[in-house]
Design the sequence.
C-alpha cells in the first residue's frame, strides 16, 4: 500500500518537473491563513510552470500533508492512510481560483486568456499587479490589452499605499475608457486619503470630458446616419412627389422591392458563386435599381398616368398598389423576414475612441447617400432628361408645345424616382430587417422629409433629412425613441400649419 | 332610393331580434350569434363610412385620421367596460388588470368618470369632438387643403398610436382593453345584450344618416359643397370656409367616435392597432367604393367591402389583400362615383 503510494508520488514528481520549492508548497498547503496567501502570492510572482498543476491538485483534494511536506497524489491513486488532508477555507479557495486565472492570463490560447480576464475582473487587487504587468507585456490582442490595462489600473487603485493610489489615479486621468471611469467612481466611494481622493476626482472629471466628446460625436454620427437613411428614402419621393406631384403611397413598397432584389442577388451568389460573395453588392445595386424602376414604370403606365391632377385619387390608388405589392412579396418570398448579410468589408466598424465606433455599413450608407444625391442633382441639372423633367414640371403644356414627349418624360421620371427608392432599399437591407412590412415603417418618415423640405427642389429635402435625423437622435437621447417620434410628427403638423409649402419652399405668388 | 334604405335597415333591425331570440338554435330560421355580431360590426363601419363621406364627399376634405376618432370613442367605452369587470379580473383587484400589472395603486386622473356609463359616453363623444375642433381649427385656418390635410391627419393618428402603445398613457399599452364582462350590470355575452348592441348600432346608423341628410340638404350643406368645388370663390363671396369645414369635421369625428363606442363592446377588444394608418385609409375606401357625395353609397360600400373581406378571410385569406388593393385601384380608375355611380349608369 505504502509502496504504491510512494510510487505514485515519484511519478507525480517526475512527470511535472517539479520546480516549485517544496517548502513554499507546504506553506501554501498548510498554516495560518495570511501566511498561506502570502506564500501563494510569492509563488505566483515567481511565475512558475509547476504552480498550476499543484494548485489544481490542491483544489481537487489530491494533496496530502506528511511530515511537513506537501505531497501530490497522482490522479486515480489512493491517498496514504496516515497523511493529513490540507484544509481549504473559502478565502483560500477564492485565492486559488484567482491565482489559477492569473496563470491562465499567460496561456497561449486567446479564449483561455479572455475567460481568465473575466474571472479576475472582480478580484483585481494590488497583490496581482506583478502578474498583470507580466501578462500585459506578453499580450498582443488589442481588445484583451485594454481589458488588462483596466485591471492593472484597478489593481493599483486598490493598493494600500495612498501615494500609489494617487499615482494610479493621475496615470488613469489620461484614459478615455468608460470602464476606467466606472472603476474610479467605485474606488472613489471608499477612498479616505484626501490627496488620492482629489486625484481620483480629477481623473473622473478628465475622463468624463473626454468621454463627453465621444458621446457627442456618437450622437452626431447616429443623427447623420439616420439623416442619410432618411435622405435616401426621401430622394426618390422628392422626384415623384416633389417634382411630379404624385402622392405615391407605394413608395415604401418600392424600397421593399429594392431590398428583396438585393436578397435575390445575394441568394444567387450564394448558390452559384460563393467565392465572390463579398462582391454581391456591386450587382445588387443595379439590380435593385432596375427592379424598382420597372415596377415604378409599370405603375405609372397602368395607373398613375390616368390620375394626374387628382392627388387624392392617386393617394388611394397607390395605397392599393402598395397592398398588392406587399401581398405579392408574401406570396413569392413568404411572410417571414429574410436575412440579408453584410459582405465582409461592410461588417465591423472603425473604432475612433473607446466609446465611439463607427460601423462600416453606416459609413457606407452616408457616403452612398451623398453619391446618389450628387447623381440626381447632376442628372436634373445637366442632362437632357433632367431638362425635360424640369420643363414638364414647370409648365406641362408649354413643354408639350415645344415638342417634349410629356408622357414619356413622366414615365421616365417616375421610373427614376422608383429606381432611387430601389437603391435606398438595397442600402436599408444592409442595416435592418428585410420583410414585407419594410416599406410601411418608412413611408410616413419619407413624406415627412419631403413635406418639411418643401416641394420642387432637392436642397430642402437634404436639409430636412439631415435635420430630422439629428433632431430625432437628440430627442431620443433625451426622452426615448417613442416620444421623440411623437414629437417629430407633431412638429410636422405644426410646420404644415405655418408653412404649407414646406420650410424651404420656392417663393411664389399663386393663391391655390 | 333613400326611403328603401331606411325601410330595409329598420326591417333588418326588427328581424334580427326576432330571428336570434325567438327562434331557438337549430331552427331553420335561427340567426346565429356570429351573424348578429358581424351585422353589428358592419353597422358600425357603415357609420364610419358615412362620417367620412360627409367631409370627403360633401366637403372635399379627405381625412386619413378617422381611425383616431373611432379608436378614441372605443377607448372611452372600453374604460367603462374595464371598470365594470370589477373584481372578476385575474388579479381580483378593484383596478383593471393591466394597472395591477404595472403596480399602479390608484386610477389615473383621466379615469375619473370611468364608473359612470353616461359620464363615459359623454367623454367618449366630447374628447374626439374637442380634438377635431382644435386640430381642425388650426388646420383650416392655415388653409391646409387636399393632400396636405390628409398627410397631417395621418401623422396625428400615427403619433396617437405610438402614444397609446406606451404603458404610461394608461390605456393598457399594446394589449389595450379586453375581457369585458358586463354593461350596466348585465352580462355582455348574453343573447339579449348582443341583439341590443346590434339594434343600437342600427339605430345609431339611421340617426346619423338622417342627420347627415338633413345637414347636406340644408343651406349649410350647400355651402359646404360649394367650398368643395371652389373654396376660393366661396371665400370671395364673403363666406368663411373655416366655420363650415370645421363644423363638418367635428360632426364627422363625433359620428366616428359613436361608431367606435358601439363597436368595442361587440368585438370585445380595443387596442392601438385601430389607429394604424391602414385602418383609416380602409375607411376611405368604404366610402369610395360605395360612392362619394351620396349618403347611401358609403353605407353600401362599408357592407360590400367588409362582406367581401369576411368571405375572403374565410375562403382564401392570402387573396384578400390582392382584392382590397385591386378595389382601391379599380374604384379610383374606373368608378370615381363608386357603386352608386354604376347603379345610376345602369338606370339610364
Sequence:
Amino acid at each position: 500500500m505504502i509502496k504504491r503510494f510512494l510510487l505514485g508520488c515519484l511519478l507525480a514528481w517526475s512527470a511535472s518537473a517539479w520546480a516549485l520549492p517544496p517548502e513554499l508548497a507546504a506553506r501554501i498547503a498548510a498554516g495560518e491563513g495570511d501566511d498561506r496567501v502570502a506564500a501563494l502570492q510569492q509563488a505566483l510572482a515567481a511565475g512558475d510552470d509547476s504552480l498550476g498543476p499543484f494548485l489544481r491538485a490542491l483544489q481537487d483534494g489530491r494533496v496530502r500533508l506528511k511530515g511537513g511536506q506537501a505531497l501530490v497524489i497522482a490522479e486515480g491513486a489512493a491517498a496514504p492512510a496516515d497523511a493529513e488532508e490540507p484544509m481549504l477555507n473559502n478565502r483560500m479557495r477564492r485565492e486559488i481560483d484567482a491565482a489559477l486565472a492569473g496563470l491562465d492570463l499567460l496561456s497561449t490560447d486567446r479564449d483561455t486568456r479572455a475567460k481568465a480576464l473575466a474571472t479576475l475582473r472582480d478580484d483585481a487587487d494590488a497583490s496581482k499587479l506583478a502578474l498583470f504587468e507580466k501578462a500585459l507585456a506578453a499580450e498582443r490582442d488589442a481588445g484583451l490589452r485594454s481589458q488588462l490595462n483596466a485591471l492593472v489600473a484597478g489593481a493599483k487603485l486598490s493598493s494600500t499605499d495612498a501615494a500609489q493610489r494617487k499615482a494610479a489615479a493621475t496615470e488613469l486621468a489620461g484614459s478615455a475608457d468608460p470602464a476606467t471611469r466606472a472603476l474610479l467612481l467605485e474606488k472613489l466611494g471608499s477612498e479616505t486619503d484626501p490627496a488620492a481622493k482629489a486625484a481620483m476626482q480629477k481623473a473622473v472629471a478628465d475622463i468624463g470630458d473626454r468621454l463627453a466628446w465621444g458621446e457627442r460625436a456618437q450622437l452626431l454620427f447616429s443623427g447623420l446616419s439616420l439623416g442619410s437613411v432618411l435622405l435616401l428614402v426621401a430622394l426618390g419621393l422628392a422626384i415623384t412627389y416633389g417634382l411630379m406631384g404624385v402622392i405615391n403611397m407605394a413608395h415604401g413598397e418600392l424600397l421593399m422591392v429594392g431590398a428583396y432584389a438585393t436578397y435575390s442577388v445575394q441568394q444567387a451568389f450564394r448558390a452559384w458563386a460563393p467565392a465572390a460573395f463579398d462582391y454581391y453588392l456591386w450587382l445588387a445595386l443595379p439590380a435593385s435599381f432596375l427592379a424598382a424602376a420597372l415596377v415604378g414604370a409599370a405603375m405609372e403606365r397602368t395607373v398613375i398616368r390616368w390620375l394626374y391632377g387628382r392627388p387624392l385619387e392617386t393617394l388611394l390608388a397607390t395605397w392599393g398598389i402598395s397592398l398588392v405589392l406587399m401581398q405579392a412579396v408574401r406570396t413569392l418570398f413568404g411572410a417571414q423576414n429574410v436575412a440579408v448579410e453584410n459582405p465582409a468589408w461592410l461588417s465591423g466598424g472603425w473604432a475612433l475612441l473607446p466609446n465611439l465606433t463607427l460601423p462600416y455599413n453606416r459609413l457606407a450608407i452616408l457616403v452612398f447617400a451623398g453619391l446618389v444625391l450628387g447623381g440626381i442633382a447632376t442628372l436634373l441639372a445637366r442632362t437632357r432628361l433632367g431638362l425635360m423633367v424640369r420643363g414638364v414640371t414647370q409648365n406641362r403644356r408649354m413643354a408639350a408645345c415645344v415638342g417634349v414627349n410629356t408622357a414619356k418624360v413622366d414615365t421616365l421620371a417616375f421610373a427614376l424616382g422608383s429606381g432611387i427608392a430601389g437603391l435606398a432599399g438595397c442600402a436599408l437591407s444592409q442595416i435592418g430587417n428585410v420583410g414585407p412590412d419594410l416599406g410601411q415603417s418608412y413611408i410616413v418618415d419619407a413624406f415627412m422629409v419631403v413635406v418639411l423640405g418643401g416641394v420642387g427642389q432637392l436642397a430642402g429635402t437634404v436639409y430636412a433629412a439631415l435635420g430630422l435625423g439629428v433632431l430625432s437622435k437628440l430627442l431620443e437621447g433625451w426622452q426615448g425613441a417613442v416620444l421623440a417620434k411623437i414629437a417629430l410628427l407633431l412638429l410636422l403638423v405644426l410646420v404644415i400649419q405655418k408653412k404649407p409649402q414646406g420650410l424651404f419652399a420656392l417663393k411664389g405668388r399663386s393663391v391655390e | 332610393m333613400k326611403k328603401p334604405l331606411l325601410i330595409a335597415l329598420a326591417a333588418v333591425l326588427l328581424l334580427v331580434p326576432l330571428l336570434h331570440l325567438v327562434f331557438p338554435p337549430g331552427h331553420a330560421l335561427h340567426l346565429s350569434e356570429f351573424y348578429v355580431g358581424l351585422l353589428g360590426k358592419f353597422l358600425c363601419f357603415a357609420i364610419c363610412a358615412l362620417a367620412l363621406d360627409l367631409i370627403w364627399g360633401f366637403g372635399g376634405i379627405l381625412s386619413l385620421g378617422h381611425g383616431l376618432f373611432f379608436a378614441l370613442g372605443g377607448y372611452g367605452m372600453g374604460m367603462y367596460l374595464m371598470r365594470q369587470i370589477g373584481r372578476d379580473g385575474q388579479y381580483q383587484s378593484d383596478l383593471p388588470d393591466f394597472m395591477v400589472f404595472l403596480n399602479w395603486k390608484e386610477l389615473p386622473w383621466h379615469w375619473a368618470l370611468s364608473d359612470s356609463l353616461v359620464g363615459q359616453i359623454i367623454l367618449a363623444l366630447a374628447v374626439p369632438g374637442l380634438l377635431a375642433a382644435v386640430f381642425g381649427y388650426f388646420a383650416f385656418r392655415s388653409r391646409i387643403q387636399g393632400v396636405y390635410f390628409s398627410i397631417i391627419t395621418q401623422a396625428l393618428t400615427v403619433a396617437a398610436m405610438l402614444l397609446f402603445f406606451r404603458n404610461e398613457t394608461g390605456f393598457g399599452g399594446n394589449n389595450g382593453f379586453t375581457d369585458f364582462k358586463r354593461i350596466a350590470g348585465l352580462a355582455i355575452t348574453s343573447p339579449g345584450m348582443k341583439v341590443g348592441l346590434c339594434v343600437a348600432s342600427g339605430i345609431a346608423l339611421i340617426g346619423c344618416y338622417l342627420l347627415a341628410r338633413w345637414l347636406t340638404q340644408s343651406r349649410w350643406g350647400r355651402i359646404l359643397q360649394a367650398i368643395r368645388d371652389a373654396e376660393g370663390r366661396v371665400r370671395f363671396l364673403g363666406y368663411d370656409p373655416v366655420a363650415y369645414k370645421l363644423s363638418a369635421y367635428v360632426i364627422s369625428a363625433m359620428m366616428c367616435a359613436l361608431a367606435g363606442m358601439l363597436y368595442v363592446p361587440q368585438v370585445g377588444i380595443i387596442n392601438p392597432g385601430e389607429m394604424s394608418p391602414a385602418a383609416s385609409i380602409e375607411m376611405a375606401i368604404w366610402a369610395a367604393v360605395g360612392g362619394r357625395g351620396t349618403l347611401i353609397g358609403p353605407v353600401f360600400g362599408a357592407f360590400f367591402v367588409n362582406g367581401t373581406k369576411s368571405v375572403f378571410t374565410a375562403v382564401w385569406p392570402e387573396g384578400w389583400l390582392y382584392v382590397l388593393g385591386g378595389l382601391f385601384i379599380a374604384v379610383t380608375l374606373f368608378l370615381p362615383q363608386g357603386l352608386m355611380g354604376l347603379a345610376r349608369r345602369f338606370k339610364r
In short: Residues 1-104 of chain A form one domain. Chain A touches chain B through 39 residues (CB under 8 Å). The first helix of chain A runs from residue 2 to 15.
